[in-house]
Amino acid sequence: MTKLSLSDGEWKLMNLLWDESPQTIGGMVDALRADTAWTKATVNIMLNRLADKGAVRIDATGPRKRFYPLLARDDAVRQEARNTLSRIRTGGLGLLVSTMARECALSEAEIDELYRILKEGRREHA
After folding, report:
1. Using an 8 Å Cβ cutoff, are 38 and 29 in contact?
2. Are the C-beta atoms of residues 24 and 62 closer than 8 Å to each other?
3. Where are the domains of the chain?
4. Which long-range contacts (CB under 8 A, 24 or more apart) does 22-29 make?
5. Does pLDDT of 59 surpass 90?
6. pLDDT band, residue 23 (cuts 50/70/90)
């Protein structure tokens, strides 16, 4: 996996692409209208930046450019988690997880999943 860092705005665009691809610039502007005031020019610049990073593929063969994710969501989340953990190393993983549990109001299903993940981690390192 290529190391890359996504800005908050790039995450917004990538989430749209991961949820439904391909996307056009106009479609992305419309989808983000309630959340941002981005113009087509802004979205185009950001998509070109993502393409330069190797996260997005641009297909310009039709009447409208279409955009596809090249970076897998799981890979991006893993990389972001590694980046976050390396930045906030003080306090350890326990502080991070306990803060997430308190601040994010985890559902029962999410808590069960967290238990499952921790148990799997214990088995893998035993």
Report:
1. yes
2. no
3. 8-69, 88-124
4. 22/59, 22/66, 22/67, 22/68, 23/66, 23/67, 24/64, 24/65, 24/66, 24/67, 25/64, 25/65, 25/67, 26/64, 28/67
5. yes
6. very high
21: Cα separation from own chain's centroid:
15
Containing 76, the helix (H) or strand (E) segment is helix 73-87
* Residue type (1 letter), 7: S
Q: What is the mean pLDDT of residues 60-74?
A: 95
CATH architecture of 8-69: Orthogonal Bundle (1.10)
Kindly give the pairing relationship between strand 66-69 and strand 56-59: antiparallel
Whole-angstrom CA distances from 9 to 14, 37, 42, 120, 125 are 9, 12, 10, 33, 37
Looking at residue 66, the DSSP 8-state letter turns out to be E
Is this structure's pTM higher than 0.90? no
Amino acid at 117: I
